[in-house]
Amino acid sequence: MFITGSYGEIWRWLQLRRVPVLSSVSDQEINELVSHLDEVEISPGECVYDVGDPGDCMYVVERGQVIFFSIIRV
Prior knowledge:
mainly alpha, about 25% helix
């Protein structure tokens, strides 16, 4: 597959190709995903999702790590 675009678009395309859950997605569909990506920077300790929030986006971690946890209230 020959890909064109800005350095950032090509980088994102290559990174998405490494995401296991996207392994069966076609190159054309990856191109479509890349065209809709927004880069966001998350501060340490910042909450990006809480139980009950609508699932209206997807995050792909480029650098760093994410910790998921749930607090059980009784």
